[in-house]
Known about the structure:
It contains twelve helices and two strands; from the N terminus they run αααααααββααααα. Helices cover 62% and strands 3% of the residues. It has helices at residues 4-10, 12-15, 21-38, 43-48, 62-83, 93-102, 107-110, 123-127, 130-140, 145-153, 165-186, 192-201, and strands spanning 111-113, 119-121. A two-stranded antiparallel ribbon has the order 1-2.
Amino acid sequence: MIKRNEIEEVFSNFLSIIEDEEIKRKVVDAWLLGCKKGGWQSMEELRQMPFTLLTDCKGINFLEHTLAVTEGALQLAKAQEKQYSIVPYNINYDILVAGGLLHDVGKLLEIGKNNEERFTKSHSGKCMRHPISGAILAAEVDLPEEIVNVIACHAKEGEGRPQVLETVFVHQADFATFNPLVMMTKDTLIRKDDINIKKNRGVLKNG
Length: 207
Ligand SMILES: [Fe+2]
């Protein structure tokens, strides 16, 4: 069984930013509830879990992705506060960090393991995508509705819908980690390596 201190340890750097002790505790509560409902037994399993089943993750795991998106959203917010002389909206860092840490918590339910121990879409995942199951987890532990909005609206479910500011940042950070992988799969991500490879093959040299 996954323990509270194991979740706290992985997310410690970000949890320490959250000032509201109740929100901090409930973020971990939501993760523990997701682990319990999803039947996850160890942190090692979560380190092996791909962060999405929609494209090749190239070895980037679920926990790494959660940390990268939280960091990315945080830095997007800080960049505006640093560079703008006037920031025309209030950024709530508790909602931003909690939302980042929880945006994909529903994947604990959406993803499961099949009989061959391979990661696959679970029964729950067939019934609903992770923004919905994650929003339910957050509501179950009584997190504020603004954080529920980040989870519910961070992906395509949020397109064209009202969003809190923190959802916008988490959405952008999330897609900045997801889109390059999709583009790699589709061979639409232009990389210098590709150019060098083509050069070596004489493709560019010959026009
Ligand atoms: Fe994500």
